[in-house]
Design a protein that fits this description.
Blueprint: H1 5-12, H2 16-27, H3 32-38, H4 40-43, H5 48-77, H6 83-91, H7 95-102, H8 112-118, H9 122-130, H10 135-141, H11 146-166, H12 168-181, E1 183-188, E2 208-210, H13 216-227, E3 231-236, H14 239-250, H15 256-305, E4 315-319, E5 326-331, E6 337-343, H16 348-361, E7 365-369, H17 374-386, E8 400-404, H18 409-413, H19 416-421, H20 427-440, H21 442-446, H22 465-483, E9 485-486, H23 492-495, H24 503-516, H25 533-539, E10 543-544, H26 562-571, H27 576-581, H28 583-586, H29 601-612, E11 642-651, E12 654-658, E13 665-668, E14 689-698, E15 703-707
Parallel strand pairs: 4-7, 7-8, 9-10, 13-15
Antiparallel strand pairs: 1-2, 1-3, 4-5, 5-6, 11-12, 11-14, 12-13, 14-15
Length: about 700
């Protein structure tokens, strides 16, 4: 097998030895989270992003290797594979160059050039292409009758046009011109511009700007408008410059035959070269835009999954609604459904029901969905809390109230997962449960929903769906393994994302747990059907057993390193529990004493950090939030107001902020800081609580411009 280490190293800036070690681990079926966390000595402490880049490049080179094999076989079957051509193909690792080499041999439909060859015009074409003899001489030489002259010249030009279009240098020159000067131009389709649906693309009806400067979100919007039939798109470089470059390469004389070559060259550019390279640049620019959009989506998803959990508390959750009422559920501290009902806004019965349930279940927190009627529901809850002292009901502690994002809750409520969890409840109850559980542990609940349905990206339906799905899957896996899960309480859905497991083993763990009770320790996981030693190695460090007799089972210390910790404890004449609870003992540990050929300082440092804070949750503590009480609709908003808000989505041109009026305002990137920034994530994070200033209101289109700048 070809060694791609040096090739990948030069592309991503990581040492070839690190690349080789990572590829070896990937070929051993090690997962990215496992490699990043537990194989630092082998990779030189590469992080997940670097390992993912290596994996992506490695798979790309494997695909290219397969493509080369196909190309070699095809040319060989044609009897045209010379030793020199074979060497060129085998030594090429650039996909564009490889396809250029292959182009003259690539099977294709019959072309105008093929027809001209069948008519015997190829010798004439070769003579004209050389531009040495006068055209009249060629007419005599090839015995072309005057009545056939026009047809013969046209046939020769068709053949020459194809030669030019297949010339590697010509294609490189035109690509270079596209790179420097290509302009993307749009034109609205006749009779479409006044259609109501077309108005959302009005800003893209007449675009004319350099392709290399257009932002990814604008390009994706243009491509969507094109696919929906509202605009036509063209990508073209400067035509005269492109033809000058071709002429420099192909025109060698100043005679009639050179003129015929020039005509063929112009035809080749218009009919063959320009459309082909335009297609390439349309695809490459779209791929670049996809990459940026997918990056934004993955970053937002990561932030959402790492959102602060409330933890195990008794929760009342409400899914707001006007006409059909608010769906109310009561959840136990473990997230089990205890009660559900419906209450209607601004009714005495609703207040009494809420107060009675708050008292009966001693609710510790209230979750309110952020959809329609959210503000009104929040007000109803506050009235219930403020007046409970005047009722027979009492509360030991006043519950905190949180507004929770509903994005994806409706998708979950109608899903197979929700039907399995609540077969006897309708979608409204399941949706309210999801809102409450999302407050308790966002990660555990959100893994049940297709990430594309969570609503934290831009143009997610326009980007490459395979790449998007893979990126989001890796993001979820990264977060789940970073946080870790309690194997005795985790659902099969979150267990699926644990390193090495997958759906089948996750279900086996849940089934084994149901049949045999809680796992007493990590080692007991080996009793689960299909849990082999290799899978156990991949998964164990990310699974926690809270009540194990070995305290390390509730930490991120991998079982393969338990003996190291036990040696540390033995050397200090204490127990492992003592090491984990006493800083003075940990300070006495000399890590150099425990370095071996397999275990180095990076792993030992991780172990020491974990002993200090075993099973620490990287997520921050949740904070209560309140919108401005006097702002409920866009009519309440005035320019100059400073309002509390929550960041709901981040794009590469700014961030969207909920200020409590059911229409998110936009904080453009230029209004995010008093300094120049390249990425909104430098300033804000998803669901961050902020204070924003209103700088513009378009009440007709329902748009609000906000600013974070300090004045």
């Amino acid at each position: 097998m070809t060694d791609f280490s040096k090739l990948i190293s030069s592309r991503i800036g990581v040492a070839a030895t690190q690349v080789a070690a990572t590829i070896a681990l990937l070929n051993e079926n090690a997962t990215i989270p496992f490699i990043a966390r537990y194989r630092k000595e082998r990779t030189g402490s590469l992080d997940e992003v670097q390992i993912s880049s290596i994996a992506e490049e490695y798979h790309r080179f494997l695909e290219l290797d397969d493509r080369k094999a196909t190309i070699l076989k095809t040319i060989e079957e044609q009897g045209k594979l010379s030793a020199e051509l074979r060497q060129r193909i085998e030594q090429s690792w650039d996909s564009t160059e490889l396809e250029d080499i292959y182009l003259p041999y690539k099977p294709h439909r019959k072309t105008r050039a093929d027809i001209a060859r069948e008519q015997g015009f190829e010798p004439l074409a070769k003579a004209i292409f050389e531009q040495r003899e006068p055209l009249a001489n060629l007419n005599s030489k090839f015995k072309i009758q005057n009545s056939k002259l026009t047809e013969a010249l046209q046939g020769a030009r068709d053949i020459i046009a194809e030669w030019i279009s297949q010339d590697e240098k010509a294609r490189q020159n035109i690509r270079r011109e596209f790179s420097y000067s290509a302009v993307i131009t749009t034109k609205v389709v006749k009779d479409k511009e006044h259609e109501p649906e077309a108005q959302k693309y009005k800003d893209y009806f007449a675009i004319n700007e350099p392709l290399r400067r257009i932002s990814s979100h604008r390009l994706l919007a243009i491509r969507r408008a094109e696919s929906e039939g509202y605009i036509r798109v063209d990508i073209s470089p400067d035509r005269e410059k492109a033809l000058d470059k071709l002429g420099y390469h192909f025109l060698h004389a100043n005679n009639e035959t050179a003129y015929q070559v020039e005509l063929a060259m112009e035809d080749s550019y218009k009919r063959l070269l320009k459309p082909a390279i335009e297609t390439e640049f349309a695809a490459s620019s779209k791929e670049k835009a996809d990459t940026e959009a997918i990056r934004v989506f993955a970053d937002n998803l990561r932030q959402l999954l790492l959102e602060s959990p409330l933890g195990q508390k008794r929760v009342m959750a409400l899914d707001p609604g006007f006409r059909t009422g608010c769906k109310l559920v009561v959840l136990s501290a473990q997230g089990d459904l205890l009660r559900h009902t419906v209450v209607f806004l601004n009714t005495k019965q609703a207040t009494e029901t809420i107060q009675q349930l708050l008292h009966q279940y001693q609710i510790e927190a209230i979750a309110i969905g952020n959809g329609t009627a959210s503000r009104e529901t929040e007000q109803m809850v506050r009235v219930s809390l403020d007046t409970i002292d005047s009722t027979p009901y009492t509360l030991h502690h006043t519950p905190q109230t949180f507004v929770v994002s509903e994005s994806g809750a409706s998708v979950y409520s109608a899903s197979k997962i929700a039907r399995e969890e609540f077969p006897d409840e309708d979608v409204t109850v399941r949706g309210a449960v999801s809102i409450g559980r999302r407050l308790m542990d966002p990660l555990a609940e959100l893994v049940k929903i297709d990430p594309k349905s969570i609503g934290v990206g831009q143009y997610q339906h326009d980007v490459n769906q395979t790449r998007l799905a893979e990126s989001l899957k890796l993001t979820v896996e990264s977060v789940v393994n970073r946080v870790g899960v309690d194997v005795n309480t985790a659902s099969k859905h979150i267990l699926t994302y644990i390193s090495g497991l997958g759906p089948a083993l996750a279900q086996n763990i849940v089934n084994y747990r149901s049949e045999h009770g809680a796992f007493p320790n990590r080692k007991a996981l080996l009793q689960v059907p299909k849990m082999g030693s290799k899978t156990y190695e991949q998964a164990a460090g990310f699974l926690r057993v809270t009540n194990s007799d070995n305290p390390l089972d509730n930490s991120a210390v991998h079982p393969e390193s338990y003996s190291i910790v036990e040696r540390m404890a033995k050397d200090l004449k204490c127990t492992v529990s003592d090491l984990m609870s006493r800083a003075d003992l940990r300070q006495k540990i000399d890590l150099q004493r425990y370095v071996t050929n397999e275990v180095g300082i990076p792993t030992l440092t991780d172990i020491l950090n974990e002993l200090e804070k075993p099973s620490r949750d990287p997520r921050t503590q949740i904070e209560e939030f309140h919108f401005a009480e006097n702002v409920h609709t866009i009519d309440d908003v005035q320019v100059g107001m400073v309002l509390p808000g929550i960041i709901t989505n981040i794009s590469n041109f700014g961030a969207f902020c909920d200020i409590g009026i059911h229409k998110d305002g936009l904080i453009h990137i230029s209004e995010m800081a008093n300094r120049r920034i390249s990425n909104p994530s430098e300033v804000v994070s998803l669901h961050q609580h902020v204070r924003v200033r209103v700088i513009d209101i378009d009440r007709v289109r329902g748009r609000i411009q906000l600013s974070l700048k300090q004045h």
